[in-house]
Structures are given as structure tokens and as C-alpha cells.
Amino acid sequence: MNRSQLVEMLGAVGEGIVRRFFQSQGCQVQMSEDKYDAVKDMIVDGKTVEVKTLLPIYKYNSFCLPCQQSKKCESVDRLIFIEVPDLPGEDVVIFESIKDPETNRRYDWRDWFNKQYCQFYRLTNLVEIGRIKDRNASTAMWKLSPSEYKGHKNVFTT
Questions:
Q1: How far is the C-alpha of 5 from the C-alpha of 89, rounded, in Å?
Q2: How far are the Cα atoms of 9, 68, 109, 145 from residue 4, in angstroms, in the given order?
Q3: How does pLDDT run along the chain (158 residues), one tens digit per residue?
Q4: Considering just the CA atoms, what is the radius of gyration of the chain in Å?
Q5: CATH 3.40.1350 at 3-149, yes or no
Q6: For residue 48, how many other CB atoms are within 10 A of its CB?
Q7: Which residue, 58, 108, 128, 150, is most buried by CB atoms nearer than 10 A?
Q8: C-alpha–C-alpha distance, residues 55 and 75, integer Å
Q9: Where do the structural domains in the chain lie, given as residue ranges?
Q10: Cα dihedral angle (42, 143, 135, 69), rounded to 10 degrees?
Q11: For the segment 52-75, what is each residue's pLDDT rounded down to a tens digit?
Q12: CA dist 9 to 26, 58, 71, 101, Å?
């Protein structure tokens, strides 16, 4: 499998986790029928939701997204991040990024990273809304993640 196929499959796993999480909370969830939907991944209780399934960049304690995804991420009602576990079997953590009322944006800063201009979403500014203890989902996400930062959390956090 190539990198884009891995990323697509990882995103689908993350969206499935978020769908089940919201359904378990009694929410009405409608998935987008178009996997390339430019507006949202799903609608939860009438609100547009975008889901990003990523391993944080531990050096910056942040999730990092290319700026070309900015319009979609900033325009949805809810932006949800699924943290790919650093190691297989760890909890899957669900975060929500809330717009800053002063800047009217969700990201903390922009900068170049891996030859792309990116937006950074600091983990300390996100709200943890759920934690899933599912070893199979965790291990599947870890295996699908093409990130070279897997297994390096302790290098930057100790």
C-alpha cells in the first residue's frame, strides 16, 4: 500500500471511531456520502464536523495540518482530532479544537514543516472529549499511520 492509501484508510478508521463515539452519546450522526466532501466528514446533531486522524508532532506538542486544509477545518462547526497512539495498544484519544474568540480561528500558529506550510494545533489548547480503550482499533491505527514519529513520544516529553 502506498502512503496516500494508508492515510485514506487511517482517516476512515478515525471517522468510524468518531461516529460510534457520538452515537454512544445519543447523538444523531449522518456520514458524508462523498469521501472527498470539501465541506465536512459528517453531520452530528445538525452540526458539520471534520475529523483529522493524526499522530501529534511531539517536538511541538501539536497536531500539524497542511494549510491547504485550512478552509475546511476553520469553516466546520466542530473540528475533531483523533490521536493515533504512539505505540500499539495505547488509548485512542479524541480531542476537539475550539475557535479562539479573539482570533476567530482554531489553529495556534503557522510555519514550515516537512517542506509544507502548515497549521499547528497545540494539544494543550484542545479539549479532550473522549478516550477509547480498544486495543484492536489502537493497533490498527498505529499500523496504518505512515508517520515517522511513531514510538518517539518519550524522546520529546521526558
A1: 22
A2: 9, 16, 26, 10
A3: 898 999 999 999 999 999 999 999 999 999 998 877 888 999 999 999 999 999 999 889 999 999 999 999 999 999 999 999 999 999 999 999 999 999 999 999 999 998 999 999 999 999 999 999 999 999 999 999 988 877 766 655 54
A4: 15
A5: yes
A6: 18
A7: 108
A8: 23
A9: 3-149
A10: -30
A11: 999 999 889 999 999 999 999 999
A12: 26, 23, 23, 34
Residue 31 to residues 37, 45, 145, Cα–Cα distance (Å): 10, 12, 22
Listed in sequence order, the residues at least 6 apart from 137 whose beta carbon sits closer than 8 Å to its beta carbon are 13, 17, 92
**Look-up of cell digits 504512539:** 86
Distance in Å from the first CA to the final CA of the chain: 34
How do residues 104-122 score in pLDDT, each as one tens digit?
999 999 999 989 999 999 9
CA distances, 121 to each of 74, 111, 124 (Å): 12, 12, 9
Alpha-carbon distance of 140 to 14, in angstroms, equals 10
Residue with cell 482554531: 106
Name the one residue in this structure whose C-alpha cell is 477509547. 132
